[in-house]
Amino acid sequence: MERPDVSDRGNLLHNLPLSAIAEQFIPLAQGDRCRIEQIVSTGQASPPDFWYDQDETEFVLILQGEAELECQGEAPQILHAGDWRILPAHCRHRVNYTQAEPPTVWLAVFYPAATGT
């Protein structure tokens, strides 16, 4: 039996940085119309008055830690381990807070916005 490539597997909660100046965005997989990233946050937040506005839909899941996510026009939402959210394309959003210890670990899946038929 052939040994699988080591890059074909991993554990998203192992070998995490204890602290970092910037969030770490680690690509895990990518196809023609989808990409998956691990994001490791150690207390970072969006700059004041900054809003993400993406062309893609984003599914985010907190694997460890917690974060406060705010979508424009909605009350901020605290996300804990196991909580997930779908951010439709052009849903203006920001991160107000991330837990530093232990680091907040996100799984983010980006895919094309839904189109009408």
TrEMBL record:
Domain Cupin type-2: 40-110
InterPro entries the UniProt entry points to: Cupin_2 (IPR013096), RmlC-like_jellyroll (IPR014710), RmlC_Cupin_sf (IPR011051)
Domain of life: Bacteria
CDD domains with a match to the protein in the record: cupin_reut_a1446 (cd06981)
Coiled-coil annotated spans: none
UniProt xrefs under Pfam families: Cupin_2
Protein name: Cupin domain-containing protein
The species this protein was found in: Synechococcus elongatus PCC 11802
